[in-house]
Amino acid sequence: MNTFSIVFLVALFASFGVEFWLARRQAASVLGHRDRVPEAFAAALSLAAHQKAADYTLAKLKVQKVAQFFHLILLLGFTLGGGIAALDRGLALLKLGPIAHGTALILATLFLLALLELPLSIYQTFVVEEKFGFNRTTFAQFVKDLSLQAILGLVLGAPLVALVLWVMEHAGQSWWLLAWAILMGFSLLMSWAWPTWIAPLFNRFTPLEDTELKARIQRLLERCGFHSQGIFVMDGSRRSGHGNAYFTGLGRYKRIVFFDTLLAALDPEELEAVLAHELGHFKRRHVLKLLLVNAGLSFISLALLGWLAGETWFYQGLGVPRPSAAAAILLFILIAPVFGAFLKPILAAVQRSYEFEADAFAASLTRSEALIRALVKLYRDNAATLTPDPLYAAFHYSHPPAAIRIAHLKRTPAK
To answer: Is the pLDDT of residue 415 over 70?
Structure first.
């Protein structure tokens, strides 16, 4: 161990301690308000629905706390515990070339981490989600999805990792600049390819057939000047009872997607209001702004990695005696969330401000009462708690808490 080992351990246990403390606050807040529907929702939600949301939130918090503790153990095991170093030695027996060895080390480590955390995912899906009536996937579908994700990860990830490792080995001290450009290019490529080529591997997307609703949506799109490749319905009910709607794609390949569960839950006016909210993100350039923020954070991260990759104390402080490009990438991937955890409230606050802006935009095009009705139905149907702890929400909520969001909408000037 060296000084960086101590810095890492302090940051790790500090972030874990904060998360554990926040989870306890969240549980206390939800449990403390379980037996009474908040006054603002008393006319729209039954006590039974409110209590279901509370119990669902508490059940997820229990899994979350176990997952955080287990992840801490795995992180220590793969770093200071010598897990990465052991895998490195094992793969060395295959006598692969430097790029192939490094690619195998990165992919094998990430695969093992995912495999070890898989039981918690199974428990969340087939115990927690099942208990509260949300799970609709079969175990066969679950395995099929995992297998497909693994294949895509290998087909897409292996060449990308190998290319970045080659750049690290051959592009000199400024390799990280080229690596950053490659990663940004890959990200844009995936944004283009996802709706057309990748998402259909997991779900079925069919054009919206409801002519009345489609005409209503088309009129809204024309008022906003939004052009898309089409309006599609996704069979989200194959896996879950949760509802959602989103935009995907870039440029003229943009798509509007509704979950079939959402179409079943909301009336046409409410669906129009939800779509107007999503259009607000487009008109206020939130997607572009978040892309630029992510690009900036990636730039800083790659610059930091470019420096750390040349420092022996970085490897030795994290349990890896033999420096290498692959080890540098792996260690950085594993520890970045530890040090980045304290940025969560800043990024979450930015995202919540975008939600307020999108709500205001929706209220300018549709009736705010329709969006409020839609939100209340979504909170009810998704069993979202109405009484989160303010500090927990500040760290973890990308959307404003229900009571604050609806109060803000009620103050927004009507259409």
So the answer is: no
